[in-house]
Amino acid sequence: MKKLLCLAMALFMLLACFGTALADDPAPKIVRLLSIESNTSELVELFNKSHTDIQMEQVYISGSWDGVSQKLPAMIAANEAPDFAFMSFVDVAAYAAQGYLRDVTELVERDINMADFVPGVWEATMVEGKYWGVPYEIRVEQTWYDADVFDMMGVPYPSQDWNEAWTLEEWRENLPKLTGTNPETGDSVYGHVWQGNLWYWSQLQWLMAAYGHTSPFDENGRPIWDTPEMAQMLQDLYDMYQEGVLVPNDIMAESGYKTLFANNRLAMYTGGTWNAQAVVDMNVHAMPNVGGRTNYWIDTWIMFNGTADPDAQWEVAKWLCSKEYWDWKITEDVSCCLPIRADSFEEAKNTLWPWLTEADRDCLFQGAEEAFAFPMEYHIKMPALNNASKEILNMIKTGEYATAQETCEALQEYWQDIIDDNI
User: Fold this and answer.
1) pLDDT tens track for 232-253
2) How far is residue 334 from each of residues 122, 327, 344, measured CA to CA in Å?
3) Within 13 Å, how many C-alpha atoms sit on residue 38's CB side?
4) Are residues 155 and 250 in the same domain?
5) Separation CA 286–CA 278 (nearest Å)
6) What is the extent of the structural domain holding 351?
7) Residue 14 lies in a domain
8) Domains in the chain, number
9) 120 & 176 share domain
10) Using one digit for the tens of pLDDT, what is the confidence trace for 250-305?
11) Does one domain contain both 182 and 258?
12) pLDDT digits (tens, 9 = 90+) for 88-147
């Protein structure tokens, strides 16, 4: 009997100790990330393997930025905002102005060594001198070209040295030469395409420099559009559309640029470093843009107020900027863009996108480094300005505006109304 009593007491003490151990080992803290990027699940897995006290969860939205713009406000209204959201930097100001984001300025100044990062990347998370998140990655706009089409049309390849980039005149001269008929298939071949429609504000900023505009905004913060230079730029683009050197909307909608490239029906496409994965098997190479400059912008992890555990949220934020994370990101071939860390940026020059030739890689990274000297400027209402410009520019094709100057004036008036109504 005494033995049974001792055994029972020992078992009781063991269970008590086990219960205490469980009490001392609480459930991990959960940090939620909202993203349209499918590979976010891979970074979540990487983080969760090396952390026990904090675990990430991905809130995945398929589609495009439009899906985020629809889903996120609804989540905020329902008090279900994530801890982080993958966001284009042009939207940071809008969410910060509405009071949705967490001010992490003191934490950034305490824990982040700016010397570890590519100059300018942290500014993308700032509004009125405060940080509202952490930078995600660098996206640089590039032009890719199909060497086979250049060979077929007998046009020399453009220089891959940014100091010898095609001028606007050379661009206009060569696009018609790259347009015609594929002699083997009889298919129409086009010199260039621009997002399947006439152009919009953020896609035009690199070209503005060729027309003498170093800034897309005037001294009062108004978008610059109603000038003779901008009218000439629009007229030149529209003339090229009318001349058939740019892919018509219906062909673009039917085929898409990937199919056109694959079938040697498209000579050039202006997109960006995010296209690198898409064009890997299409004999497409990076080249400088017209005017010797390009846009770059920094996508951002914006951080929301009301997080369940602010400390856990900040630990994840620091990890997203860490060398550990970026070592994985550039070696596992999951990045579609360039690193924010200076050391990782240098390593990526030799490791990222191994299918690129050495000359292509040099050109791409030279373009990125040149771009940092001309950061893309944005406005708090940039998404609205983009939508307005696409709508009005397309009205040229319907004849609603007789001249490019009239269109520019309409754009300026419409944009000013948007700014006045919302700010």
Assistant:
1) 988 888 888 888 888 887 888 7
2) 22, 11, 14
3) 2
4) yes
5) 13
6) 31-140+297-371
7) no
8) 2
9) no
10) 888 788 888 888 889 999 887 777 777 666 666 677 777 776 667 777 888 999 99
11) yes
12) 777 788 888 889 999 999 999 999 999 999 988 898 888 888 999 999 988 887 788 899
Same domain, 56 and 129: yes
Strands 268-270 and 143-146 turn out to be antiparallel
Residue at 141: amino acid letter: E
Contact predicate 273/287, CB 8 Å:
no
Task: Note whether 312 and 111 are within 8 A (CB).
Answer: no
Of 336, 352, 371, which residue sits at a domain end?
371
CB atoms within 10 A of CB 22: 9
For residues 349 and 370, is the Cβ–Cβ distance under 8 A?
A: no
Element (H, E) at 131: strand 130-131
Mean pLDDT, residues 184-212 taken together: 75
The answer for residues whose C-beta is within 8 angstroms of residue 240's C-beta and 6 or more apart is 172, 175, 192, 246
Say which CATH number the domain at 187 has.
3.40.190.10
Domain boundary residue, one of 346, 371, 396: 371
